[in-house]
């Protein structure tokens, strides 16, 4: 067991399925475009994109993304009480998101490379 | 205003940045601090210089689904997405945050929103929203994209306010420590627009509810399995969930329908330059009165999963023999135009459940081989 531990990478990821591209060039291109954008982005306030996984049986494609441990902010906020929520906390959330958006908006250069990264094919 | 490069438009394809509260995710850092991340921002944030100033724009193809309540009016009409149209969306996200996750433009259908926003309507100030931040929202929603702040500007404004709040809290805390009855003082030093009820609880409020960490999994529509080494041989890294593990059902529905539609559109119109076409198709933003397109062009999808979306069709788009399922959806779309608000309400409660019950696709066999 211990030996296995040293060899495993413990990493939770989220998968976003792009439904069966089915050989359609356009769908494939879109998928590649998204993967190509995402792979270059690295920022604490941007969900990290690890790579692409293709299910050869179904031809479904998956983006593997960083797992967000606490779920969506929307869900958290909806469960909050207006009486107990701290305004500073809300501003902090907005600030985090803005930080990520600053990074995205100032990202240079917007070059397109067309390829699909397949993890360890 | 924008010169369009067809080549770029083709590469970029359609799709729009999908900046909305539902795409903000929460993570916990090692020090326990919570971190918000922008996640799953949709297809292609690739932009290109339009050679006409500093604005980066990307152009969508002829057909797309748009989350109308989040998208700036000029982006809806011209289908040009820029950083400045993202700033508009961010204004809506701000509104959502300070409304504690309430859906924007409550009690309004996407169609109404489109019409009223173009005539100057803006959402009102949420109860919890401090005045400076509401002003920031309004700036993000400026009719003229170039008059909106940049994200850098948005960030700076938020940071200033954040620091001033913290300063006030520190002052309130120091006053409280020297003076036993301090609630009135704390109230005075808090932002003026806050309801007094919440002001008095500011200092005493718990940092975060514990429920997220303990009582249930973070999101019903998501799944992740903490894989231990002992059983990790077949699935070392991943657990496959439904369409989008990080997204609520609403968004994943968007992507699916989106790609299906865009493919059909591509077949119909691939031979024409998309950009010119879309420019011709819509009235100029600064044209007289409100160039809302006719009802036939704007369809509110009735599908629950697409409650946020508005379906814009190219005026010249030929009727395509669609799959039967699509035809049914279209019928619902038309029927649902007038009571789409009720549908939205229903969808509100229904979608998460649907997402939860939807059986995740079986993990792809031999997944491991791709990850070694």
Summarize the structure in words:
The complex is a heterodimer of chains A (121) and B (372). Chain A has a three-stranded antiparallel beta sheet with strand order 1-3-2, covered by helices on one side. Chain A has four helices and three strands, in the order αβαββαα. Chain A has 121 residues and is α+β, with helices and mostly antiparallel strands. The two termini of chain A are 27 Å apart. Chain B is mainly alpha-helical and 372 residues long. Helices cover 42% and strands 8% of the residues of chain B. Chain B is built from 14 helices and eight strands. Chain B has helices spanning 6-12, 73-78, 83-98, 110-118, 131-140, 151-178, 183-189, 196-202, 211-214, 249-269, 274-281, 324-335, 340-357, 368-371, and strands at 24-28, 34-38, 48-49, 56-59, 64-67, 80-82, 298-299, 309-312. Chain B has a three-stranded antiparallel beta sheet with strand order 3-4-6. In chain B, strands 5-8-7 form a three-stranded antiparallel beta sheet. The interface between A and B is large, with 84 and 108 residues.
Largest sheet geometry of chain A: 3 strands, antiparallel
Largest sheet of chain B: 3 strands, antiparallel
Q: What is the helix/strand order of chain B?
A: HEEEEEHEHHHHHHHHHEEHHH
In N-to-C order, the SSE pattern of chain A is: HEHEEHH
Q: Which term fits the overall shape of chain B? A: globular
What is the spatial order of strands in the main beta sheet of chain B? 3-4-6
Q: Low-confidence segments of chain A, ≥5 residues, pLDDT <50? A: 1-6, 110-121
Number of DSSP strand runs of chain A = 3
Kindly, what is the distance between the CA atoms of the first and last residues of chain B, rounded to a whole number of angstroms? Answer: 50 Å
- Please state roughly what percent of the residues of chain B sit in beta strands, choosing from under 5%, 5-15%, 15-25%, 25-35%, 35-45% or over 45%: 5-15%
Structural class by secondary-structure content of chain A: alpha+beta
Uncertain parts of chain B: 1-16, 42-63, 181-372
Radius of gyration of chain A over all CA atoms, rounded: 18 Å
Largest interface: A-B, 84 and 108 residues
- How far apart, in Å, are the first and last alpha carbons of chain A? 27 Å
Oligomeric category: heterodimer
Q: How many helices of chain B does DSSP assign?
A: 14
